[in-house]
Amino acid sequence: MPIIDVHAHVGRWQFPLSCGDADDNLRLMDRYGIDLQLVSASEAVVYDAVAGNAALTKELASRPRLCGYAVVNPNRIEESAADLRRCLDSGRFVGAKIHTHYPGRLPGSREMGEAFDAVAEAGVPLLLHTWGREVLQLPDMVASRPGLRVIMGHAGGDAWREAAHAAASCEGLYLEHCRTAADAGRIAYAREAGVPVERLLFGTDATLIDPCWSLGVLRDAGFTPAELDRVLWRNAADLFGLEVPG
After folding, report:
1. What does pLDDT average to over the chain?
2. At residue 245, does pLDDT exceed 70?
3. CA 26 to CA 35: how far, in whole Å?
4. pLDDT over 90 (residue 45)
5. What's the pLDDT band for 246 if we cut at 50, 70, 90?
6. pTM higher than 0.85, yes or no?
């Protein structure tokens, strides 16, 4: 079946990795049968959102299997809101990405609230880096902005139990479980908490992490073929309005 990866990156990091350009993304996609990948620029995440988004725009122009997230910096919200509109106008970006720890702004802060407002106004899904109990702030933040849809990247990280309950309580929250530690039972816990399969998405954190990690987590989650069809691609296609290449 098709595969859409909703959490990946283009570019080099401050970590000792051997990959980093967009062609490395495509090589990993070919290896694991990933049809489409939604990416943010590592430069935009860790250093300069506007410059990183501009560099990613050039990379996306010749690679139709990659779609972009425009990174929004909560510390420079007016600049980032205008840049988000420019990226979406290019036709190659399908959502927004916000990190929490690099800019030092967590859910519940004024700056993060303003960033959520900008994404809600743009009308696109948001991939939010989540790692910690601050995920408990998200149901109220999302519910107060009708139409906003937020993917909890890493499904809360070490707070995956709290993230599961947060997502179960709010229809605008989705879970995506990529991370470096494959804690057993995370997906089963989320489903028992009441998160429907329609709000579970597949992400890899490539090229920081090899996609085999996330594929293994799904293999062990006990999905039926119909459920796996939804998680691997159909949910993402519906959320972002994507068409998978034949």
Report:
1. 95
2. no
3. 9
4. yes
5. low
6. yes
Tokens representing 16 are: 């000792």
Any bridge partners for residue 145, and if so which?
A: none
Q: In 3D, which of 57, 61, 2, 63 has the Cα closest to residue 34?
A: 2
Helices (H), 5-159: 22-32, 42-46, 49-61, 77-89, 110-122, 138-143
110: tokens are: 């004024």
237 has pLDDT over 90: yes
List, as one string, the DSSP characters of 191-241.
Answer: HHHT--GGGEE----BTTS-THHHHHHHHTTT--HHHHHIIIIIHHHHHHT
Strand order of the β-sheet with 126-129 is 4-10, 36-41, 66-71, 93-98, 126-129, 150-153, 173-176, 200-201
Would you state the CATH architecture of domain 4-240?
Answer: Alpha-Beta Barrel (3.20)
User: Tell me, what DSSP letter sits at residue 67?
Assistant: E
In the numeric block, which tokens belong to residue 246? 């034949």
* Residues 236 and 202: beta-carbon distance below 8 Å: yes
CA distance 228 to 225: 5
**Does 130 sit behind a cis peptide bond, omega within 30 degrees of 0 on the bond before it?**
no
Lookup result for tokens 């959520």:
116
